[in-house]
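2 proteins. here.
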Amino acid sequence: MNNLGMFIIGLIIFCAYMVTLLYNIYMANEAQSKQNENDPELKQINKI
């Protein structure tokens, strides 16, 4: 029974870590996309 409790607690911590990690990756991707849209150097490269 003790091992099952440790497994469930570990699984909850792991799932919370993975959700947080994926959320941070998604938000960083959104921020970088917005930053790239406003970058004048990238606009010049795309015109060429």
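next one coming up
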Amino acid sequence: MISLPSIPQDVSVAKHERADAAARQLVGQAFLVPLLKEVRESTAGHGVFSPGAAERRFGPILDHQMADTLMTRLDLDLVTQVRQSMLNREAQVAEVKS
């Protein structure tokens, strides 16, 4: 079971959820998609077992879908760091505006 991270007192739940979703999407697209693409392409068969036109066309879509699914289930420290960086940055911008 995934434990929910503690939310800092000065951050609203909505901001924390938006930052968490954005951080998960960023890490998934920047880290997992290229990794999944490399694995898919390096394990592709040769000759008769080579990927067909449909597999070549829809493989990247599958990579994105798999990355999104993994990011909802994985609790990576990188996501936590990116989320905290986003929240800190938003707090700095709000502080400058006021």
